[in-house]
Amino acid sequence: MKKASLHFFLVIGSCVFFQHPAPAQKKTDSLKKALTAVRSDSIRARLSNEISKQLWQSGDYDEAFRYASDALRFSIAGQRIKEELYALNNLGTIYRHRAQNDSALELFTRMFNKAEKENDREVMAMGYGNIGLVYMDISDYPHALEQLLKALSIAEELGDKRRISIQYGNIGLLYKYQFDYDKALDYYSKALRLAREVDDQTSIARLYGSIGIVLSEKSKLKSISPPRHDSLLMAAMKYHLDALQLKTKAGNKNGIAITLSYIAGVYLDLGDLERSLDYYQRALDLGKQMGIPSFMGNCIGNIGNVKMKLKRYRESEADLLEALRLGRQTNNMDAVMDWNSDLGQLYAAMGNYGKAILFFRKSVSLRDSIYNAENTRKTVQTQMKYEYEKKLVSEKAEQEKKDELSAAEDRKRQIILWSVVAGLVLVMISSAFIYRGYLEKRKTNIEISKQKQLIEEKQKEILDSIHYARKIQRSLLPSEKFIAKKWPGPDRI
């Protein structure tokens, strides 16, 4: 019943795959048309970079390389540092997808050094992340994690949710390669949450596929019960179909090929070998169109495994040997380890035990060199160092915040203190002026009082003199009665 449900989902997925147009192609054509109409080197650099990015995302690496090279030339001529950095990133990414890791590392390092000189933190984060992916491709996980955590730290510093999401996803991939599925799912979930917040459809599609493949891998653990096994595969298929729909809508040929291979893997786990073989072949056909040796090797090796289960041993042997050759060519040690192990199983099934033992030993030797205790210890140490440094940064920021608050309080107290002192000084000065005015007024009043008293005394002396003179006058002159008696008036004659 569950297989029937899965088949129903896949029919829907196939319809989506064949019916949707390719808007990415329309966008690329529009950019190419715009490029022919401009003469400015800086604008041509920007358009060429965007065209290159569209092309390598759709798997057309040859043309993408040509436009990235043009972008580099235009950016140098127009002295556009930012576009020069993007051109180097495009070129490095194309080399990485072609599994030319040395060239990719050289270009990413060149980009990072130039960005560091310009103090371009955004491009520095991009450089750390891409260098980390190259180290991951060659199974150098401690160095890969160190670079990815540096990229994550800068993205967090910038508050760039999209880049934080990308680095969470890359770290999740690293833990998936080390079979730490729970930690991988934890980082993928963090990445998906942020990608949804910023509506980054490309990252959402990629993370759907990443979560789906981890769920498929987890279903193979011995501790997983049969019901849980089927449940995990159902969940994985749902994520792959959602990813296929988004990648088809975007015209992402590379993403479509990878998702088809994931769907084939789910069919393989379910035991539907013919359907698995069909989807691996579809994925391989797209891989050949894009010319990706590492992806082609994975598809061919998986096809060889399916044919081994179908007991088509000679075909399986040819496919697995070709996958082994491509793994060595691309320096993909994980793949080389897996194909050696699968060849050991094949030769054991064919009864050629000498060859079987030889290939098993090669696989074990590679496994020990890739996943030895020292590498695991270094990976854990790198993670712990990052967490510790992150904690220190957080504590430092918290302490700086407290210090700022304390300094603000001190400034506030000082302002209040000086305000009080200034107020007191003003009061004292005002009091001094008032007191001085009081003293001057008092002095004036005293002077006035003295003068008034003096005037009053003079006035008294004058009045006393007048009164004294009147007395003398009265004493010397006869009185009116006496005069009247001696000299009567006319009315009396």
Question: Can you give keywords for this protein?
Answer:
single chain, 493 residues, mainly alpha, 20 helices, 87% helix, rod-shaped
Account of the 3D structure:
By secondary structure, the protein is mainly α. Helix content is 87%, strand content 0%. The chain is built from 20 helices and no strands. α2 (23-36) packs antiparallel against α3. The chain starts with a helix and ends in a 7-residue tail after the last helix.
Count of alpha and pi helical runs = 20
* Overall pLDDT confidence: 82
What fraction strand?
A: under 5%
Order of helices and strands: HHHHHHHHHHHHHHHHHHHH
Short description:
The protein is mainly α and 493 residues long. The chain is built from 20 helices and no strands. Helix 1 runs parallel beside helix 12 (226-250), helix 13 packs parallel to helix 15 and helix 15 (293-309) packs antiparallel against helix 16 (313-329).
Q: In terms of topology, how is this protein built?
A:
Blueprint (H helix, E strand, L loop, with lengths): L1 H18 L3 H14 L4 H17 L3 H17 L3 H17 L3 H17 L3 H17 L3 H18 L2 H17 L3 H17 L3 H18 L7 H25 L2 H18 L2 H18 L2 H17 L3 H17 L3 H18 L2 H18 L2 H104 L3 H7 L7
Helix pairs in contact: 1-12, 2-3, 3-4, 3-5, 4-5, 5-6, 5-7, 6-7, 7-8, 7-9, 8-9, 8-19, 9-10, 9-11, 10-11, 11-12, 11-13, 12-13, 13-14, 13-15, 14-15, 15-16, 15-17, 16-17, 17-18
